[in-house]
Design brief:
Blueprint lengths: L1 E5 L3 E5 L5 E5 L14 E6 L3 H10 L16 E7 L5 E7 L9 H4 L20 E8 L2 H11 L3 E5 L3 E5 L4 E7 L14 E5 L3 H9 L12 E2 L5 E7 L5 E7 L6 H7 L1 H4 L1
Parallel strand pairs: 4-6, 7-10, 11-14
Antiparallel strand pairs: 1-2, 2-3, 4-7, 5-6, 8-9, 9-10, 12-13, 13-14
């Protein structure tokens, strides 16, 4: 993954064309290190077997046996990172269940750090941030009618929505998923937007979307504007607008001129 911003207390990595991972120092962020890791990040790849072999050379073993099965809608394996977060290496296969998703994955850029130790060509075409809920129909309504996102995969007990070109959000029935619902959750689901004030006004006016603060936070160093709300089951929903700043030089190249203004 490509490091695109380092704030010391937080670092931003570009995982795919427009999907990012932000790692935060738990002593300085909104969550503590002992909160449940109620999330799994799926890294989508067509080269699943090669990723499995590479990770084995690093002594990293999946949580269960990797066994691709012909005709299955998706294959994959899961590892646990050093602090307990789940990383799922996943391939969505040609299957009626995936007919809306697969065209969105074609031709996507593979992101690699300039000095990546990973074998050539290995990377990811998209990501899915899996979240775990008690009331799946309620959350479907929230993502469709409040967030305005489009469902692209329906697995019955799990639904996938498109948040950006290569970034997806997955809703999982916590009775069937790898994680269970928890009151506290050591995760923020972030959306990078241009009109931060418009989004704040929209969220503030929506009774189904409580805010964590009373105004948009303007970073003292001029790096970003942001605010946080809560979804109906308690996940932190963060909205960010990054600004032109020396610390954001690499990041802004990827976000494009619309957000750079």
């Amino acid at each position: 993954m490509e490091l695109v911003a380092d704030y010391q207390m937080a670092t931003i990595f570009r995982m795919t064309g427009d999907s990012y991972l932000i790692l935060v120092d738990a002593t300085k962020g909104m969550h503590t290190a002992d909160e449940p890791k109620s999330v799994a990040v799926a890294l989508l790849t067509d080269r699943l077997e090669e990723w499995h072999a590479y990770l084995a050379t690093k002594g990293i073993k999946p949580r269960s046996t990797f066994a691709p099965t012909p005709g299955r809608a998706h294959d994959g394996f899961v590892i646990t990172d050093p602090e307990g977060y789940l990383l799922e290496f996943e391939r969505f296969n040609p299957h009626p269940e995936n007919e809306r998703l697969l065209p969105l994955l074609k031709g996507n850029e593979i992101v690699r750090a300039p000095e990546s130790p990973v074998p050539g060509g290995l990377g990811f075409t998209a990501t899915v941030t899996w979240l775990y809920y008690k009331d799946l129909p309620l959350m479907q309504t929230f993502y469709e009618e409040v967030m305005g996102l489009e469902q692209v995969v329906d697995q019955g007990w799990a639904k996938v929505y498109q948040g950006s070109r290569t970034g997806f959000v997955g809703l999982v029935d916590e009775r069937r998923g790898m994680n269970r619902w928890t009151e506290k959750k050591a995760v923020n689901v972030s959306f990078i937007v241009d009109d931060i004030d418009g989004w704040f006004a929209y969220v503030a006016a929506n009774t189904k979307f409580p805010l964590r603060g009373t105004a948009v936070n303007h970073d003292d160093m001029g790096r970003y504007h942001a605010f946080v709300g809560y979804d109906p089951e308690g996940y932190y929903m963060e909205f960010d607008r990054f600004l032109e700043h020396p610390m954001n030089a690499s990041l802004m190249k990827h976000l494009g001129s619309a957000i750079a203004k």
